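User: Need the bound-state model for nicotinamide-adenine-dinucleotide:
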Amino acid sequence: MTLNCRPTALITGGIGGFGVALARLLLARDFRVALADLDAEQGHKVTEDLDVLFIPLDVGDLAANHRAVALVESRYDAIDAVFLNAGIVGRQDPAAALDLRAYEAILGANLHGVTFGIDAAIPALRRSDGGRIVVTASLAGLVPMPGDPFYSMTKSAALAYSRAMAPRLAEEGITLSVVCPGFADTQLIGPMRSVFEDAGFPILTAEDVAAALLLAHDEAEAGAAYVVQPGMPPTPYRFRNVPAARDASGASVAIPTGLSAHALPAELDQRAE
Ligand SMILES: NC(=O)c1ccc[n+]([C@@H]2O[C@H](COP(=O)([O-])OP(=O)(O)OC[C@H]3O[C@@H](n4cnc5c(N)ncnc54)[C@H](O)[C@@H]3O)[C@@H](O)[C@H]2O)c1
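Assistant: Bound-state model below.
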């Protein structure tokens, strides 16, 4: 974290439900906040009453992610926290033939938004001697969502990539963690909202999720993935181990010590269950 001055955070998907709710929490903590989002016109409107920097950004564009981070650094001298939060739902009927444009759009927002965002954040966080990255994935990345397979795929991939990157980054003081919310009341769920309402199914508020994103930031536990569901506090998800390799006698065998520990999945680095 930068010394002797207010910490700085960048939030992508910043003018959406979770983005604005999180920005308010960070501002209350005296952070300087930059909100990056696709829709420039709407972005300037939404941020009019907020003391934040707005940056037009398509997170699916690698160079644009780097430019956004550079802009935050040039405005505020440093960057301490990056929330990779932009996302969209799938825009295709899963029963229809693959719609390439819909596929590329969701890969750009939900997956490249994370891989490119992490790539852009790392050099800046190194210059701050460390910092936090928090990725907004989804419960749909932990359990299949048959109504929107593209969404499930991209959120699973974002989660897997983040967990695989986290140990290496932690060595440099950059903690990368993930938040996996259930359904929440924002634009993203669109007409699904009335289905939940009619069924009396509880859904999260944007503020619930923003609080979980801040908790992930504060706890700074590398590779943690927090489940956020209505009626319970954000809870770290406990991933199960996979079966380990066995030798001819049937005994489980540890991973060879000659291999770099952080090149291995945490689960494989242990004995079988
Ligand atoms: N609302 C939910 O039920 C829910 C549940 C789990 C996870 N999520 C995830 O939370 C994140 C925030 O969603 P939200 O609920 O606040 O929805 P939202 O629609 O209110 O906000 C998403 C924001 O992302 C922006 N965005 C979309 N594509 C972009 C791109 N290519 N580049 C830059 N910005 C882009 C949108 O303009 C929007 O402002 C998303 O990643 C979403 O997948 C939402």
